[in-house]
Amino acid sequence: MHGPDRTWGRLARAAAPRLAAGTLLAGFLLLKCFALWPAVGDENIYFYMATRVARGVLPWREFFFAHPPLHLVPGTLLALITDFHLPLFKAIPAAAAALCGTFLWRSLRHISGSRAGLLGLFLLLFSYDFLRASSHYTGVNVGLALLAAALDAALRRRDRLAGGLLAGAAGTALYLAPVGIGLALARFLEDRRAGWRLAASGLSVFAAINLLGLATGGSSYLAQVYAYHLAKPHAAGAFGGAIASIALTNPLLLASPLAAASAWALGRLLGRSASATSCLRLLRFTALPLVIGLVFLASLSRVFHFYFLPLFPFLALAGGFGLSDLLRSVGGALRARPPRAALARAAFSIAALGLTLLAADGVRALGLAHQPWVGKVGTVRHYSFQGSPLPDGIDALVRRTLWRDERRIGARVAGVTRYLWHESRIFRAAEPLVQTVTQQVPPGPLFGDSTSTPLIALLSGRRIAADEVDTNIMRFKSGATTLEALFEHLQSDPPAALLLHPGRGIATLPGFQTFARLNYRLLARHIDPYQGPYEVWVRQ
């Protein structure tokens, strides 16, 4: 009589963790709908490049591209089946980030159960820098999805698959390689034969990816993907400044490994050999990628915030495991009979949880103390809410629950609120710039600021002159390209107009300023409320 009820109960219990994980992922993707608007940034370079590759233009050989081959694959595949549509292309990093979270959840659920999976998934998806970075097609998102899949495969002892996925991650963004090496080393220490299998698979696939790059770009591939990054000038204090910023905006994620260490210590103290062994395995798979990744970042001449993203899945892995294990210990102590027998365990676990929260507050305080605007603490900034393409009722709910119109510098702010502030600063000058180009600029290609011109070209149906898409100032400061070589290349495909961002990027180079004044005249100037002035110059 009770058979069907018991069956439904088992099914419900089995489905509940998946439903909870799906709810977290759905909430994350809902938030990503607020990031579908035009933005200023390097992603516009890669959107344009992907559309050109889809039309048969070769990267490295026919245009400067500083990343390995797999970065452009998702965008190119999308461009092969549809014309450029900004929300569709903006969905690539969001979908990749959701995949990263899914594989992290699978890993934690496999090694430590459903509660750990959900806690780790929450820590990852709703940390500020993960939310922010998953709005932009910089390559790190696709690489993180492959990295998290490799982590899941390695924990399940599927070594050849893990090696191939790690190679794919490095073949998307090279700065993912160090944490991949840490992951491979963790597997090697666990099982030498398995480690060699993983390494052999990874090296073979990575070699194949680079051979593809060499076949496509020749020596230019090595010059642009490897030599260029090594030649970038040193930026003093870049590593420390980036660490401080990451600490300020993601304090709980950075402090959460303390919970994992506490859980391991608790297992040792209580003599729970199985728990301690499981925790030690996870700590090995966490600590080695984190340490090797940090050493690599500290060695770089120039560090950007998203370079730290490869550490996030491992921080969330440790945090999800540790928090779950401590909560499990508290729950077990409360259910113990007699309860006094478990008081010490409960006290230790509660103290460890409290210490983790205190550590998070300390991490945040350290981050705040090292911000360049620390002297402005207490001042107020105002933001205007930017809705999403979703129904008005959803926008209203998000605004009521997660949004603030004012930001007090230095105050505690939820990562989701900070993320919505970031997404409210859309590229509002894009529309008038497109109108100027389509209505007033003579036919012909465009050239200019690489964080905005590629997007304006795509939206107005124009080309970039001589496919000189990436005019990142580092190209010229590193010596990878000279202005003289650039001007000579532009003579083969003269720009009908220049789109410049005064005081930023290539417009700051005196030689380029002279080139613009001698050959072009100012046609229009548009002010973006967040980015400042943008100028359109046409040939004299």
- Runs in which pLDDT lies below 50 for 5 or more consecutive residues are none
Measured on Cα atoms, how large is the radius of gyration?
25 Å
- Taken from the alpha-carbon principal axes, the silhouette is globular
Biggest β-sheet: strands ordered side by side in the sheet: 3-4-6-5
Task: Explain what you see.
- The chain has 24 helices and six strands.
- By secondary structure, the protein is mostly helical.
- The strands form two sheets. Strands 3-4-6-5 form a four-stranded mixed β-sheet.
- Helix 1 (3-32) runs parallel beside helix 5 and helix 4 packs parallel to helix 7 (140-155).
- The longest helix has 30 residues, at 3-32.
- It is globular, with a radius of gyration of 25 Å.
- The mean pLDDT is 91.
Task: Give a quick summary of the entry.
The chain has 540 residues and is mainly alpha-helical.
Blueprint (SSEs and pairs):
Layout: H1 3-32, H2 43-54, H3 73-81, H4 86-112, H5 114-125, H6 128-133, H7 140-155, H8 159-170, H9 177-190, H10 192-217, H11 219-230, H12 238-249, H13 251-255, H14 257-269, H15 273-299, H16 312-335, H17 343-369, E1 380-382, H18 392-402, E2 406-408, H19 415-424, H20 430-440, E3 446-448, H21 453-460, H22 473-477, H23 483-491, E4 497-500, H24 510-519, E5 520-528, E6 532-539
Parallel strand pairs: 3-4
Antiparallel strand pairs: 1-2, 4-6, 5-6
Task: Quickly list its features.
single chain; 540 residues; mainly alpha; 2 domains; four-stranded mixed beta sheet; globular
